[in-house]
UniProtKB/TrEMBL annotation:
Gene3D superfamilies: 2.30.29.240, C2 domain, EF-hand, Phosphatidylinositol (PI) phosphodiesterase, Phospholipase C beta, distal C-terminal domain
GO BP term, pick one: lipid catabolic process
Catalytic site positions: 327, 372
Keyword Zinc: no
Domain of life: Eukaryota
Compartments reported by the entry: Cytoplasm
Cofactor(s) listed in the protein's UniProt record: Ca(2+)
EC number: 3.1.4.11
The protein's name: 1-phosphatidylinositol 4,5-bisphosphate phosphodiesterase
One term under GO cellular component: cytoplasm
Length: 1201
């Protein structure tokens, strides 16, 4: 985004009179704006300075809309300069903390031209989105600027101002004072600092010492880890910086041609910009301070700058956009007892809202008013509201504004409303449809770009039907009476009609849409009479169409074109009429019903026609529903209560800040194109859209609060139901630290974001008590990966002064479990082929039975390929899980398969990991899905033990043991060789032959017998020696026997420790597989319940539809058909409820049974784990005793002889 350009007149300042009605005082001051456009400030004659944050300025006014003193004496005081009207020389600055709490600061200039320059200049600076999206280091500049403005009379900065900026408690104040001392600044609260000795570099050093930033220091060390010069500060080279920019900070999904990789020139430019040491900059070296500045700079944003700019195609039909909308705009609080305001209309429009609501009622003095009908909310003048809209509509956005009229006025006062629209809107009012977009069936709505600076009226349209049936009237059921009293919205609260396709009532519905106008009651007496008619079940005749003021009603009707309110009947009827200019309003309950029952039709409807969704009338506290729910269905005008800054409103403000806060956001392509269908409840990847994987690691926070409290961070995602994650990801609480908490949690992974285009990330910081600190809403498609700082906002969306979070963001395309290796192979086939060759050589040892050691960590097993023979290897005597005596290792000629994750998905009933045996070429298996009544049987441990991961761990153990024994065999051979050489030498000297049968060779075939039978061999040797005393028998020396004993003990102990380690690993893997299997089985029960419920409901719907068609053939009387239809519908509803209850009872029973089975399996698992651990220990204790007994006895016998 372009930097702010502050006009010279605002930099130079102007002498004005500041006044306010409350004090009745006028002061001569000089107003100025700082060179960066951060603040509007003024200095009085005593040199006292006051400052207003530019981002807090919501509006500036002069002339007719400026405020003037009410007191005549004050008016005479503030008058200065020319004799022009006081309003023309006045600058009114509107400051607001939210949409309701607004204050006014007034300045009087000496002439009209000066006031106009300042009004326009300030408004342009205040509404610029740069004010909200400065980089973290720019916000530090802002804080530094404010401290330099608030100097004392001697022009020095009080240290107490610096302390107050960062902390409000004694404990943290000591930390801040210590940081000031280490930065070479005075730290006593009564001290003062000269601005010349408090440059931004000094301030940044102080900030760095306060926040410390150990996590950035660790990152810096990791990037330049090969420059570990002892005794010197590490410096990052150009090459290392380029590597960091490309590997870590770059989005891997970007096109390399459109978005080239960073090169050394780019790195050198950044180093020159951020490295404070000029010598380092010239040498192309980056210090820690320069690296930190880069991380906090505008060159390292959290949101792509193009997302904030006007980057959407604004030439699509209006129905293809989400439109920022307000509900009951006039209210400032409670729906029944709150207050009304004209000012809030201005504030909503200035924030980018493009659709406001006007509840128009008859005023007592024949002047229409705006109020919440039948409540205690005071009224406001309709004329003043229209005037305010005319003045504020296009200050923040040029794109069209829709006025949603809820019209309860009689025709006389409707005529006045029409006249006010003519008078105040003038050419801004869209009187007639555009020539290129006529009001004809099938013609799309015009685009926002063709409606710039235009105001569109949404109201019911009068149609003249010359062949209209004389009995046309609107009949409301008694259940609608309460809704009529509330008068909230266009759509009566009756059940939504879904007529069958063969019903021939389009003409009647068309007439009803045209003639029904429940907004047109003339007097309160008439309303009461109408209500009595409704309660008695009598038809309510449309009085407005029959009244004498028909011409006046027509006057407001002619202003309606592209937003004609009609009563919604059905999707089929809307599609048949194909009138894109007709729209309907739904309260959240009605919209939710449509969304649940017919989601895809709702999306299709919203491709062509506008729909408005507003909060239910029961939300008396003015709370909001989550707008994302209806954005997912493509609803354009999702209207919220702007006076309530809850999470829903924060999400709305955060989303519509993007696209230059135009108030219009283009919907994703598949929600616009007629040839595409979209299910808002989709859990699998949407056709044509690449799902994403997002990983967020919250590393630390800076200056979150000036209180000494614990803090934590919540991470949420809003999008499709499958993508929405709330109240799941939360960091640990860092106690008593609001200045520089370091969280250091594991990364939070959003594994599969089905539709990134509709998803938004919300980061929210809280005190340990749960009190809100700040948050930020970021669209997923606009996220920048890597190490980023994010500036937090308050509820209203205003940035916190220095509050930031430091994150590590990782974004990539979603790859299903088990296909990650395949994706890597596609991304880098050369490397993958090299790895294949390497692994083929490593696996050859198994096929050729070579006696060389193989590192099992480098060998990955794959499922068997066709025509590949399994090679069996003798299983060791290690304490494994119960299994066969031989383990089959499948050896393909080359490894092509990819590893499959053991956790199966809900969509698959049978997990491939539980299948046993090699897989050959076979057709797609037919999976028999059990019914809910059959239930699901828990998988036993014997089946889970055959899981691929468990078997791999067991095979790893076998290889480890075999390697240990090979080493043992080698050392035994060496000892044996020494012994044989010694014996040969002795026999040569004594000239006695050696009886070969006493020389026992140790080999892999008899290694176990030699260990266990050493004692027998020694005894046997003694007996032979007795029988043949003339022979001289060779003996081992004592040192050789001790060495052999040490070797045996060493390797048995090593084998024991390895077995223990892998015992834990194998059982840990088995436990994970077991829990994964059990979780999937519980999910499958839910899937079966949902499936059978859907099937039952579909059968009932089909049966109802069939019955309805049969009725039309049997009965001719419409009233009788209607009565029977209601009976059939009631019967079907009752049957549906009973079926749901029956299925849910079965589900609960089967769930309980399955949980009991799972508990038994788990208990069996724990018993087996303990048993095998005990057997393991016992076996190796026996082995050690045998070695001690066998070799020890033999050695003693030899020494005695």
């Amino acid at each position: 985004m372009a930097p702010l350009d502050v006009p010279r007149a605002l930099l130079d300042g102007e002498k004005v009179v500041k006044w306010d009605d409350e004090s009745g005082i006028g002061l001569l001051v000089t107003i100025k704006v700082d060179e960066r456009g951060f603040f509007l400030y003024w200095i009085d004659q005593k040199k006292d300075c006051e400052v207003i944050d530019m981002s807090m300025i919501r509006d500036t006014r002069t002339g007719k809309y400026a405020r003037v003193p009410k007191d005549a004496k004050l008016r005479s005081v503030v008058c200065m300069g020319s004799q022009e009207p006081l309003g023309d020389k006045t600058i009114t600055v509107v400051v607001a903390t939210d949409f309701v709490n607004v204050s006014f600061i007034n300045f009087c200039c000496n002439k009209k031209q000066t006031a106009q320059i300042w009004t326009d200049g300030l408004l342009k600076l205040a509404l610029n989105l740069v004010q909200l999206n400065w980089s973290p280091i720019a916000f530090l500049h802002k804080t530094h600027t404010k401290l330099n403005l608030l100097v004392d009379k001697n022009g020095k900065i009080p240290v107490k101002n610096i302390l107050k900026t960062f902390t409000q408690n004694k404990e943290d104040r000591k930390k801040v004072e210590k940081a000031m001392e280490s930065s070479g600044l005075p730290s006593n609260k009564n001290d003062f600092v000269s601005p010349t000795k408090f440059t931004f570099e000094d301030f940044f050093t102080f900030y760095k010492n306060v926040t410390v930033r150990p996590e950035v220091a660790q990152l810096f060390d990791e990037v330049c880890n090969d420059r570990g010069a002892s005794g010197k500060k590490k410096l990052m080279t150009v090459g290392q910086f380029v590597d960091f920019l490309n590997r870590t900070q770059r989005d891997p999904r970007l096109n390399e041609i459109l978005h080239p990789y960073a090169n050394s020139d780019r790195a050198k430019d950044l180093i020159r910009e951020f490295e404070p040491n000029k010598q380092n900059a010239q040498r192309g070296l980056l210090s820690f301070d320069g690296f930190l500045k880069y991380l906090m700079s505008a060159d390292n944003p959290i949101v792509c700058s193009s997302t904030l700019e006007l980057n959407n195609d604004m030439d699509q039909p209006l129905s293809h956009y989400f439109i920022n909308s307000s509900h009951n705009t006039y209210l400032t609080g409670h729906q029944l007892t709150g207050k009304s305001s004209v000012e809030i209309y201005r504030q909503c429009l200035l924030s980018g809202c493009r659709c406001v609501e006007l509840d128009l009622w008859n005023g007592k003095t024949n002047e229409p008013v705006i109020l919440h009908g039948y409540t205690f909310v005071p009224e406001v003048s309709a004329r003043e509201v229209i005037e305010a809209i005319a003045e504020s509509a296009f200050k923040s956005s040029d794109y069209p504004v829709i006025l949603s009229f809820e019209n309860h006025c009689n025709t006389k006062q409707q005529a006045k409303i029409a006249q006010y629209c003519h008078d105040y809107f003038g050419d801004k009012l869209l009187y007639e449809p555009l020539n290129t977009h006529k009001l004809e069936p099938g013609v799309p709505l015009p685009p926002p770009s063709m409606l710039k600076n235009k105001i569109i009226i949404k109201n019911k349209k009068k149609h003249h039907h010359h062949h209209k049936k004389p009995t046309a009237s609107v009949v409301l059921e008694p259940a609608t009476a309460a809704t009529l009293v509330l008068g909230n919205g266009d759509l009566p609260r009756e059940p939504i009609r879904q007529p069958s396709k063969d019903s021939n009532q389009d003409d009647d519905e068309d007439d009803d849409d045209s003639s029904s106008d429940t907004d047109g009651e003339e007097e309160d007496v008439d309303r009461t009479a109408d209500l009595k008619h409704v309660l008695q079940g009598k038809p309510l005749v449309d009085k407005v169409s029959n009244t004498k003021e028909t011409e006046a009603g027509t006057e407001i009707s002619v202003l309606v074109n592209y937003c004609q309110s009609v009563q919604f009947t059905s999707f089929e009827n809307a599609e048949k009429k194909n009138r894109h200019y007709e729209m309907s309003s739904f309260d959240e309950k009605q919209a939710m019903t449509l969304l649940k029952e017919r989601p895809m039709e709702f999306v299709k409807y919203n491709k062509n026609q506008l729909s408005r969704v507003y909060p239910a009338g029961t939300r008396f506290d003015s709370s909001n529903f989550m707008p994302q729910v209806f954005w997912n269905a493509g609803c354009q005008l999702v209207a919220l209560n702007y006076q309530t800054m809850d999470v829903a409103m924060q999400l709305n403000l955060g989303i519509f800040e993007y696209n230059m806060r135009s108030g219009y956001l283009l919907k994703p392509e598949f929600m616009r194109r007629a040839d595409r269908t979209f299910d808002p409840f989709a859990e699998s990847t949407v056709d044509g859209i690449i799902a994403g994987t997002l990983t967020v690691e919250v590393l630390s926070g800076q200056m979150l609060t000036d209180k000494r409290v614990g803090t934590y961070v919540d991470i949420e995602m809003y999008g499709l139901p499958a993508d929405t994650v709330r109240k799941k990801f939360r960091t640990r609480i860092v106690p008593y630290n609001g200045i520089n908490p370091v969280y250091g949690d594991e990364p939070f992974v959003f594994k599969k974001v089905v539709l990134p285009q509709l998803a938004s990330l919300r980061l929210a910081a809280f005190e340990d008590s749960g009190k809100f600190i700040g948050h930020r809403i970021i669209p997923v498609v606009g996220l920048c990966p890597g190490y980023r700082h994010v500036v937090l906002r308050n509820e209203m969306g205003q940035p916190l002064p220095c509050g930031t979070l430091f994150l590590k963001i990782t974004v990539k395309d979603y790859v299903p479990d088990g296909l990650s290796n395949f994706a890597e192979a596609l991304a880098n086939p050369i490397k993958f082929q090299s790895d294949l060759d390497k692994r083929t050589k490593q696996l050859a040892v198994f096929a050729d039975e070579m006696d060389q050691s193989v590192n099992p960590d480098d060998t990955t097993l794959a499922p068997a390929e066709p025509d590949v023979k399994p090679v069996t290897r003798h299983q060791t005597s290690c304490p494994d899980l119960p299994t066969t005596h031989h383990m089959t290792v499948t050896l393909p000629p080359h490894r092509v398969s990819v590893t499959v994750n053991p956790v199966s998905t809900v969509e698959h009933l049978v997990n491939d990991d539980f299948n046993i045996g090699p897989r050959g070429p076979q057709k797609k298996p037919i999976v028999s899905t059990p019914s809910l009544s059959e239930g699901i049987v828990a998988e036993p441990l014997t089946k889970l033990m055959e899981n691929k991961i468990v078997k791999e761990k067991k095979l790893e153990l076998e290889k480890k043991i075999e390697r240990i024994r090979r080493k043992q065999e080698k050392e035994r051979h060496q000892v044996q060789h020494l012994r044989s050489s010694h014996d040969s030498e002795r026999m040569r000297k004594s000239k006695f032959p050696i009886n070969s049968r006493f020389v026992k060779r140790l080999s892999i075939k008899n290694i176990q017998e030699s260990i266990l039978q050493t004692h027998q061999d020694a005894s046997e040797s003694s007996e032979c020696d007795t029988d043949n005393s003339t022979s001289s028998i060779p003996r081992m020396s004592r040192s050789q026997s001790e060495r052999l004993l040490a070797i045996e003990k060493k390797y048995v102990i090593e084998e024991r420790e390895t077995s223990k380690k892998y015992h834990d690993i194998v059982f840990s893997s088995l436990e994970k597989v077991m829990r994964s299997s059990q979780t999937n089985q519980m999910k499958m029960l839910q899937v079966l319940l949902d499936k059978e419920t859907a099937e039952v409901m579909k059968k009932l719907q089909d049966r109802r539809r069939h019955d309805m068609k049969s009725l039309a053939k049997i009965h001719k009387d419409k009233d009788e058909i209607g009565r029977i239809k209601r009976e059939v519908s009631s019967s079907m509803v009752e049957k549906g409820v009973n079926e749901r209850v029956r299925l849910y009872q079965i589900y609960e029973k089967k769930t309980e049974e399955l949980e009991k089975q799972h508990e038994e399996i788990r208990q069996h698992f724990y018993d087996l784990e303990s048993k095998k651990k005990a057997e393991l220990i016992k076996e190796y204790e026996a082995k050690l005793q045998n070695i001690e007994f066998g070799l020890g006895s033999s050695t003693k016998t030899e020494l005695k002889q």
